[in-house]
């Protein structure tokens, strides 16, 4: 097994992402319509995920909210030297959410959050010039968070939840030393980990509220991943084993968020969020392939930086039957130019969203939303002296589309 083979294997978990990077969009249709502004917004059960402290300030009803999400990233690449153009395939990444909340007493409420906060699915044409770096890359996650909240008084409440996360990643690339593009190596692995979520919600006036929340980092321990090689010529079969064990740890970032919401009028509410995502913990990555005593290990620096995100959303009660929403967002990328890689090119993203709720009855509503994000152009360079990054020189342009449809019910 060659060192180059191992270095390419790193791409399985070398996420190139920003504050929103490989996050799969706001985790409910209502929050998506608000542009992601949610820390001080308590009209959505997604508060269980975004600020557990808000759970205790909801009304005395038992509430359920569920829905689906679809996230589509489209990236175009223009080679620096070749001037060849390549586009990723249209590949929606499915996701979804389920939230439930119930008050136990006047002061204590409990809830459950099940959602898919991180993920991507990148598929380049098999013949594109960067096929030896990546042909396909995919990640899916599922977070389960039982939560409890306590109402200190009519104005303040706190809450916390335990997070159990599972994730699966896969990567495929072609071996560049062969003319046959079907000579490929594939990496796949799944892992799990634990974290926590805590938040505070408060009112400083009848129409003004605020929220503070902290979501801890989660480390996914990939213990039984596998590398497989296909169509290797017989002469090189010993260098590229058909199957080998893969182990690593994937560090998903923590985040600190603060937000405010202002009931400007009887019909109009405005919300604002600021989030700092701790990407700097993804400073390096260690992994191993194979079994002892022939196990190969390597630590590679990534040097990510913490990244900020700003989100503003508005909600307008048009009538008893219809509520309208809109929002804007800006996500900063933590990736420097020399670390851009094609499995998920990332840049500073500016986004806009629209959403609505159709109230079918006093207890049932249908929620829908759409968000569009445009990432700044990013240009990558192949630096021969930098062995940390397998790359291809060129310019990336990325657009992200996210849609969601859900139901909200109370009884």
Automatic annotation (TrEMBL):
GO cellular component terms given for this protein: cell outer membrane
Transmembrane segments: none
N-terminal signal peptide: 1-19
Presence of keyword Signal: yes
Compartment(s) of residence: Cell outer membrane
SUPFAM superfamilies noted in UniProt: Porins
Principal location class: membrane
Entry membrane topology: Multi-pass membrane protein
Gene3D superfamilies the record matches: Outer membrane protein transport protein (OMPP1/FadL/TodX)
Pfam families linked: Toluene_X
Record's keyword annotation contains Membrane: yes
GO molecular function annotation: long-chain fatty acid transporting porin activity
Keywords from the UniProt entry: Cell outer membrane, Membrane, Signal, Transmembrane, Transmembrane beta strand
PANTHER family referenced in this protein's UniProt entry, alphabetically: OUTER MEMBRANE PROTEIN NMB0088-RELATED
Stated family: Belongs to the OmpP1/FadL family.
Protein name: Long-chain fatty acid transport protein
Source species of the chain: Hymenobacter daecheongensis DSM 21074
Phylogenetic classification of the source organism: Bacteria, Pseudomonadati, Bacteroidota, Cytophagia, Cytophagales
């Amino acid at each position: 097994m060659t060192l180059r083979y191992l270095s390419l294997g790193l791409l399985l978990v070398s996420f190139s992402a920003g504050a929103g990077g490989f996050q799969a969009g706001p985790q409910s249709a209502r929050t998506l319509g608000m542009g992601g502004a949610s820390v001080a917004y308590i009209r959505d059960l997604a508060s269980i995920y975004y600020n557990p402290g808000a759970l205790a300030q909801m009304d005395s009803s038992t509430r359920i909210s569920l829905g689906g999400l679809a996230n589509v990233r489209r990236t175009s690449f223009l080679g620096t030297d070749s001037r060849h153009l390549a586009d990723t395939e249209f590949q929606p990444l499915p996701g979804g959410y389920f939230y439930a909340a119930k008050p136990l007493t006047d002061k204590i409420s409990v809830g459950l959050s099940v959602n898919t906060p991180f993920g991507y699915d990148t598929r380049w044409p098999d013949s594109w010039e960067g096929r030896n770096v990546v042909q396909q890359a995919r990640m899916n996650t599922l977070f389960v968070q039982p939560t409890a909240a306590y109402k200190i008084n009519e104005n303040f409440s706190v809450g916390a939840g335990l997070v159990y996360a599972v994730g699966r990643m896969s990567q495929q690339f072609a071996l560049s030393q062969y003319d046959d593009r079907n000579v490929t190596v594939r990496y796949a692995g799944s892992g799990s980990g634990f974290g926590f979520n805590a938040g505070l919600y408060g009112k400083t006036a009848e129409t003004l509220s605020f929220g503070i929340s902290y979501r801890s980092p989660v480390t996914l321990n990939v213990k039984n991943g596998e590398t497989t090689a296909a169509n290797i010529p017989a002469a090189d079969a010993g260098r590229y084993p058909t199957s080998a064990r893969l182990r690593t740890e994937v560090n998903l970032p923590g985040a600190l968020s603060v937000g405010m919401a202002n009931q400007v009028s009887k019909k109009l509410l405005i919300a604002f969020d600021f989030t700092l995502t701790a990407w700097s913990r993804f400073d390096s990555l260690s992994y191993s392939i194979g079994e002892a005593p022939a196990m190969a290990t390597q630590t590679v620096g990534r040097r990510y930086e913490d990244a900020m995100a700003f989100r503003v959303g508005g909600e307008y009660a048009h009538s008893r039957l219809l509520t309208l929403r809109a929002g804007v967002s800006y996500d900063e990328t933590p990736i420097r130019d020399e670390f851009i890689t094609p499995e998920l090119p990332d840049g500073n993203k500016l986004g806009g969203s629209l959403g609505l709720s159709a109230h079918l009855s006093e207890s049932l509503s249908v929620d829908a939303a759409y968000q569009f994000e445009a990432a700044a152009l990013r240009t990558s360079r192949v630096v021969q002296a930098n062995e940390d990054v397998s790359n291809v020189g060129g310019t990336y342009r990325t657009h992200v589309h996210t849609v969601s449809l859900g139901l909200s019910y109370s009884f």
